[in-house]
Amino acid sequence: MLDLKQIREDPRGVVAGLGVRGDGDWDRLIDRLLELDGERRQLIGDVDDLRARRNASSPEVAALKRRGETEEATALIHELREVGDEIDRGQARLDQVEELVHGLLLEIPNLPDAEVPAGGAGANRVLREHGEPPGTLPAAPEPHWELGERLGILDLPRGAKVAGSGFPVYVGAGATLERALINWLLDLHVREHGYTEIQPPLLINRQAATGTGHLPKFAEEMYEVPEDGFFLVPTAEIPLTNLHAGEILAAADLPIRYTSYTPCFRREAGAHGRDTRGLLRLHQFDKVELMRFERPEDSAAALEEMTGHAEETLRRLGLKYRVVLLAGGDLGFANARTYDLEVWAPGVEQWLEVSSCSVYRDYQARRAGVRYRPGKGSPPEFVHTLNGSALGLARTLVAVLETWQDGGGGVVVPEPLRRYTGFDRIG
Length: 427
Hints:
The chain has 427 residues and is an alpha+beta fold. The chain has helices at residues 4-9, 11-19, 26-66, 70-107, 144-151, 156-162, 173-191, 206-212, 237-242, 299-316, 363-368, 393-403, 418-421, and strands spanning 125-130, 196-197, 203-205, 224-225, 230-232, 248-250, 256-265, 284-294, 321-325, 337-345, 350-361, 371-373, 381-382, 384-392, 411-412, 425-426. The strands form 4 sheets. The chain has an 8-stranded mixed beta sheet with strand order 1-9-10-11-14-8-7-2. Strand 10 and strand 11 form a beta hairpin. It starts with a helix and ends with a strand. 37% of the residues are buried.
């Protein structure tokens, strides 16, 4: 969440920053927050004054009784009881106001970085493009759902029979290729990019989802297990970020770099009819995630490095891709800046997002309570968090299948994956 002190000191600057995201009644929201914050501070002062008054007067009761001034003691006891009632009423209202302030802070998205362009998806900025499909690509590439069915490696109808649309079944070499991608990505990030592999829980609690900004904003996108207070993990970002929730890290601990594979579960509410063919939009998909905790002064450079790690995976797979800086209206709720990596899928003739690399500054750390101590005796400060998909595998698999199909009706396995699959061609 945003720093309440920052909002208090520069409310119009915060409103202007939020305006980069597009439509939103930011003035009204910030004004209401400041109104409640003013009431909160007044209540804190009033309750503290009442407590001080009660504490100062309490010894007088005993003194009056010792002097035999019974009527005066009784009157003072009655007065202190009324003060106690005022304290109870003031504290009850203070608790209510603090809950309202916290609730409003949870509803306010992160401020975009200064370099983030204003506008919606149409204002996204392509920063660079890399690669071309290999020469083996046929003149009329098949879309992956036709290719997968013909080669017997993808069975969408049986996935729908078991769970519904958006839950694919990979068969034979298709399942092996998916597993090979997961293992290769994890090995690459651990052995060459310096990340520590984590295998986190696949169920998360409400507090963890709130800590990353997924709740309350995206409740309808998540699969809930209400009887137990859990959600199915929509991204490994949530458990990885919350590994250090409520902790104060030593400066020597930073940076912390984690990578993790998880299946991801998303309801994709409101996405019906959009890119629903084949593997383009799923309710269950695999993803390898990168997660970093950084000193504030290092987070901008860390975003560039992490994006480079994701790009390296696409280059080694021989995929054509581009890097896109998202505009404010297309930016995630908690994100300060995001680079999307989009691969070209020649069978469907679309750019497909396979990675989002984002910096959150201290927004998530403030919600989750992740701090570090810059030096001995220094007060703790909030870390900066970053995360990136490297990669989202359903669409990466689409790009691999469609890019590496050849004139013989099969698919060539990209060289880095061959020692994981045990074969160099499907079909």
